[in-house]
Amino acid sequence: MFQNALRRLCNETLRFQTTVKYVNFLRGVRPLSVSARHLTDVKDALPFDTSLLEFLVCPLSKKQLRYEEKTNELINEELGIAYPIIDGIPNMIPTDARLIKNDPETPVEPA
Amino acid sequence: MAASIRLLARRIVRDAFRTINSSVSVRIVSSSCPSNLSACRCFSDGAADKSTHFGFETVSEGEKAERVYKVFESVAQKYDVMNDAMSLGVHRLWKDMLLHVMNPQPGIRLLDVAGGTGDISLRFLNYVRSQQERVARRTARANQTPSWQEISTSYTTPTEGIEMETEARESRAVVCDINKEMLKVGKQKAESMGVSSGLSWVVGDAEELPFDDDQFDVYTIAFGIRNVTHIDLALQEAVRVLKPGGRFMCLEFSKVTNPLLARLYDAYSFQMIPVLGEVIAGDWKSYQYLVESIRKFPDQETFKQMIEDAGLFSVRYHNLTGGVVALHSGFKL
């Protein structure tokens, strides 16, 4: 019984090692395909995954958000706030959101 | 080396005094409190004077969130290493047990709250993918002796089309954490492991989740709920974002049932863990907070009651490692 378990453990670790090597090789290939897929022009290096918008909402009003490519933010039109996206990770903490003024978009932190 | 031992000894003594002082001050404050509190409440913001616990200290609720944030910001880089050191690798078994009990089917959506470095989500994706491979292998083996009918249909329809249809819904894991540093570490770990599709990272508050209602099949929170200021709010949000039929699962440190084991566990927690924290992560206080916060968390039955109050059904718990960790599970019906 233990021999079987040991044999399976050895096989799994070998397989894991080979997949890790394979995956590390693939890592060099992958960035090219990613940049081709994402056509949006973003400021920071990592693109934002827009499929998240399917279920991501504003934590305050629970309404859908709009992705603004130029400033790389998620905008809630109703409340006039913008959530920043840093390194491809959206920051949905209300106190970190930016208030959008009507005319020039001056960054003002809400209370 | 003698100097560092002296330093450690001084720290232990100082911390012992601090805990004695804090418990004394808490008693003094609570005796003189009632009249002051009622006056204060009229004038100041609710969060500023409502107090809660931060380890064995008493702090205001606003302060607790900030201090918890600072704790995890400082331990983020060494978080995984410290977990292995403190639990002697056993935390991996606890997390594997969570996945085993969850038994996710391919195509479901997971929300990992307080997911931090993404341990649960990465395990979830591996589990689901290995299951898919197992199913694919089984069908391949079955197809090795197909009937003449099957062979003729396989000539007419392209095999790629059939495969794409079965994987119509990709499994999806979303890691949500209030702390950006922990998510950054997790994202780097995922990239180094080569996992990129089906995994998303979001900075969000467990008490105010930025997700729509009825969206997730499974909600997990592993070793995170004791750090939340209002546990009942977090539970209510969990119920909101879960689909009907969705499962809530929580791994958390809990009360040890066996008295002998409890004594050993206490000794280990208060003597070894802050020392390990100082040696490996260079942060004694964060790990002191960790072991104190474990003691302040409600026990298995009380937490089960809280989960039921939030509106989940069929709530049960499994004790792991003699009650050191409890796995609570409930369903939204």
From TrEMBL, chain A:
One of its GO terms (cellular component) is mitochondrion. SUPFAM superfamilies: Trm112p-like. It is found in: Mitochondrion. InterPro entries: Trm112-like (IPR005651). Keywords: Mitochondrion, Transit peptide. Its main location: mitochondrion. The keyword Mitochondrion applies. It comes from the Eukaryota. It holds the Pfam family Trm112p. The keyword Nucleus does not apply. Belongs to the PREY family. This is Protein preY, mitochondrial. The lineage of its organism: Eukaryota, Metazoa, Chordata, Craniata, Vertebrata.
Automatic annotation (TrEMBL), chain B:
Keywords: Membrane, Methyltransferase, Mitochondrion, Mitochondrion inner membrane, S-adenosyl-L-methionine, Transferase, Ubiquinone biosynthesis. Gene3D superfamilies: Vaccinia Virus protein VP39. It is found in: Mitochondrion inner membrane. S-adenosyl-L-methionine binds at T117, D177, D205, A206. InterPro entries: SAM-dependent_MTases_sf (IPR029063), UbiE/COQ5_MeTrFase (IPR004033), UbiE/COQ5_MeTrFase_CS (IPR023576). It is an enzyme of class 2 (transferase). GO terms for cellular component: extrinsic component of mitochondrial inner membrane. Its main location: mitochondrion. It is a peripheral membrane protein. Belongs to the class I-like SAM-binding methyltransferase superfamily. MenG/UbiE family. HAMAP family: MenG_UbiE_methyltr (MF_01813). This is 2-methoxy-6-polyprenyl-1,4-benzoquinol methylase, mitochondrial. It comes from Oncorhynchus mykiss. The gene is coq5.
